[in-house]
Amino acid sequence: MGGALVPAHARDGVEVGGNSAFAKLVPAEQVEQSAQLQYSQMLSEAQSKRALAPKDNVELERLRAIAQRIIPFAVDWNPRAASWKWEVNLIGSKQINAFCMPGGKIAFYTGILDQLKLSDDEVAMVMGHEIAHALREHARERMGKGAATQGLAKLGGALAASFFGIDARLTDAIASGGANLLTLQFSRNDESEADLVGMELAARAGFDPRSGVTLWQKMAAASKGAPPQWLSTHPSGSTRIAEIQANLPKVMPLYERARAR
Fold this sequence. Notes:
10 helices; mainly alpha; single chain; 3-stranded mixed β-sheet
């Protein structure tokens, strides 16, 4: 049959490309099970220190309400998200930190809420960013690269790793699939991707994506030249603010559509 190919439907929102092939080297189930175990251990430790917020905590209720609005849009980025047992918890700590582990295990530290005085829109930008890491399987990708590095070490080590563009410094713990998912660091590209995907998730949920600019202005002010843990591997504030602003035209219509519902 002749005729031109019908172009694929162009999706609304940001463009970040496909997932890394390295992620496929480690089973998603393995990564999510490891995350569940580590998350449970973290909650138990927080509980033992009386640092775990009770379910009637006002700030925890706020976080869970924001998550409930964002989560329905997660499956468009990763079909596995439909079966994740999502959890949101708040831990008493001065750290300016938040994360979402594989499988939808979200935690915020009180420090990021208290010190930055985050609005709901800004919380949604943080949460969207962290959820994006899980949806884009950045932890699984890092573990896959580690596994590849370990395998290549038997075939020529650093030379092979250099040829394939793999970071040979990844630890044996990551290579064997036993990564500490609480301390795993992502690349700057991962962080930039999470910014954009997170901004889209928040916008679709009816949160103002322009708050990404005020969020990073607050982050920059709080860091005072020494980035807090949450920013240790992130692009500079000015870089990410510029990227957020450049992508606002792609997500503002999503936000306006959500607000009109």
